[in-house]
Write a structure and sequence with these properties.
Number of strands: 7
Number of domains: 2
Helix content: 55-70%
Shape: rod-shaped
Distance between the termini: 108 Å
Strand content: 5-15%
Radius of gyration: 52 Å
Order of helices and strands: HHHHHHHHHHHHHEEEEHEEHE
Structural class: alpha+beta
Number of helices: 15
Largest sheet: 7 strands, mixed
Amino acid sequence: MAEKTEKSWWERNVEDNVAADYDRQRAQISEYDTLGRLEHDIKVGALKGAYGFGKGLLVGIVDIAKVGYKLYTNDPETAEKTWQLTKKVAKESWIAVGGTPEQKADQNKRCTEALLTIGKAVYHGMKADWEAASGTEGKRTELISKWAARGVLEVAALFIGAGEIQEAANAAKAAKLLEEGAVLEKYLAECEAVRALEEMQALEAVRAAEAARAAKAAEEAAALAKAKAAEEAAAAAKAKQAAKEAEAARAEAVTKKIKVAETDAAPSKAAARSASGWKPPEKLSGGKYADKQAEMTGLGKDVDERYPVKIFTESELESRRVVARDGKLVFAETGEPVTTTKDTIYVMDRHGNMFIDESEFGSVHHSSLAGGEEPVAAGHIGAKDGRVTMLNESSGHYGENLKDGASGLAKDELARQGVDTSATVASGYK
């Protein structure tokens, strides 16, 4: 062990006075304020380490004094950096006490290599400082902070983990150091920095457990919400299917009613034709307008898929076919003049045959009158007592895809068949 030398004037009158002032500051901190005293010890140790480093090298005195001043004036950034360094030392302490065998072996290897490099002189000096600090509360924390500030973290870690040097000693690499280093092992449990770190780690573990429980609760809530949403979606789909089936049943009932009415009316229609001498003209054929047929629009397809839209059969279309008679538009079956409403729609097929009916959303549309084929004209028609006043191309099923002048083509075809269209207005798609 190095012999003690007499202190210089500077050490007696400046350094010792400053040290005493730091001790007085610490005494003013409540003995119950453990963290407050720990913070003070760390700052004082870092200040002493910075001072000793600058004094030993005789360079950078101005910068080191700034660091010391910032610590003395409680500069947050500097204090934080000092705290981070000290936590590293405390972490090494924790590894020595409760680390895994692999961590302890790695620490022991680093510590042994540091000792062999520094030499016994440095070892004895630090050992003496450690033992001297045992008599005063807080001095060991201050000493750890001092070592950190002086850049000898590896050596400090060695002393704190000295009890683990046994493995290196068995390999005959540090036999001499074992006996002297093991003396420090008994002080590990008294290190305030270690206790503070353990408290923080325990708090972090509690917080992590709480976060895990919260995450699990959130996951369970999300799963419950997902299951509930699936149930609601299934219920909605079931209700939609029921509504669709009900609508289909209603449409079927309406169709049956119409068929019954047509069946009942057939004799009277035949009688009316017989009494009036009216003979229905044959349906046109030949497909002279085949090049002007229009495909159904996307909107029309969507409506036909969503709703039970009726597609009329050949016999059903015949009861809706209109033809010319004495310049008027009449029903082919009865010869009665056509008088429309605002909901009357028409379709003209590729042969020139025209069919009309009253539209009913979801049941009767232009596709109903098209009978599954592509028309050349479709829209609304206006007529009173057989006099045609209006033809347009207002059809959601075909309007956008009709050829230019489709309503004009229908008007011209009616005129060719003998209908007076002199007062008929033909307009395009709206």
